[in-house]
Amino acid sequence: MNHRAGCIFCKIADGKAPSEIVYQDDTIVAFRDINPGAPVHVIIIPRIHISSLTEVTTKHRELMGHLIEVANEIAKAEGIAERGYRLIANCGQDGRQVVPHIHFHLLGGQQLPNKLD
Ligand code: AMP
Ligand code: ZN
What we know:
alpha+beta, HIT family, subunit A, five-stranded antiparallel sheet, 20% helix, binds adenosine monophosphate
């Protein structure tokens, strides 16, 4: 696996940093955000280190499709699928991406603010 030294999300995926994991399989890990912005706030990542959305290419097609499928399953398990939710990936400096390992925020459990941040 192409781990990036010091990457906190690689460490979580490897079980080498603490987290509250809600889902994992061979390629995807999902865990609760340590600073939740909504009643349900789950971070969903691929196990492989991809820096951001801009690094996604055709070779990741199956992985990214699976990630969205997993997000839908987690939304159902968390009881937010029916009322709705957001699946967000911040990218780069203007997108205010802080952790440089691609991740999707699954947010729900309340009506979310009608603004960008
Ligand atoms: P961003 O890179 O801006 O999309 O956001 C990164 C998100 O990761 C933030 O919501 C943080 O609260 C969250 N986060 C950072 N470190 C951890 C961690 N060790 N465990 C769980 N969530 C984290
Ligand atoms: Zn990483």
